[in-house]
Amino acid sequence: MDLNSIIDTRIKRPKLIKGIRITDNESLWGRIYYIMSCEDKGIYIRIPPEKVKYFEYAIESMDGQKSIQDLELDFHHKFNRQVDVLGLIKLLANSGFVEGYNPKSSELDTFSHTIYKYNFKKDITLSPLVDKLYFIAMLISLIVNMIFLSALIFNIEKYRWLFREIDLIKNTGGQYKIAFFIISIISILYHELGHVFAGLHYGKSLESISIHLYAYIMPMCFVKFKGLNLLRAKKRLRVIGAGIYNNITLSSTSGLIIPYLSNEVHIGYFKIIFYGNLIAALANLIPVSLSDGYFLFSLLFDVHDTKDRFIKGNLFSKGSRKSLKSFVVGILLIGLAFISYILLALSTFRIVSMITLGPNNRIKMLVFLIWGIYIFYAILLSYRQIKKVRDLLL
Length: 394
Prior knowledge:
elongated; disordered C terminus; mainly alpha; 13 helices; three-stranded antiparallel sheet; single chain
């Protein structure tokens, strides 16, 4: 049963769930907004300040006693204007705030297939000692990254291998395949641990850890915290970016070690660590829906996610409003995706060259083609989700 038919039959007298609250928050650039949330159910809506009064009145008036027609009259009398109450109910129902309707099609469901999910029954917290050790580890990793960046800038001769084709020893391809498999698993785990420790550091407890086939193709781990969306933007940025930061730190560490190694096989292993973690960081940086880059981009440019972006301008008016900001954000989004794609494909080619014992132009073209098709496919899924949400709200 779709949402419209549910509203026509079961939500004749809408009643909101218990435990809803509205809190204020602030974007990275100081813009104040509000969040309507129910932490027990893990659902959130971001609300512009000028729309808060409508949601507050919805909490007050949608008690299951009034029909939609009665609510329309109440809203008109309260605010002295015509309010699209049905559109408001659609939004609240689709987000899970209306009793009798639990939306099954979340953004995660739309973009991926769940392979395994573990729900935490008890709250997990960091002890003061572990929290201090985490802070020290982050400080050390910052120093390592700064040293590697300085070495790249001021001592580039040691890092010419970054720009040369892979030099290989015969009969090492099999070893490199095994090494790449092991290092890939370690990189993924280290990436997710970055999110876990950062979230726990800011006092948020783990809700679940799941494994998905992202875009029904690529394996992906997804860590979910309780109340993460209620964190201030700067803290949320650190939690979301912690996984990418961890991968960059592993790349920097291996990059600093490589110039001091003499054994070619050992150098090959550390190059796999370097490129493997660079691939992990860049793959997550591409801003397609549900990637770390998607959420980082949303925070940096203050863009609401797909379920919330249509509240402003669309909830109480017909049509969409185009602005210079949306155009600039779109150009930056495409630019970031393109740059990440080029660097990602080049890094993948280096790894493939090591595994297949030598660079090959056909392999290079195949790598670029595969990543290009995958990203294009993910973008199409993003458009599908946006269109779906837009149809619900307009």
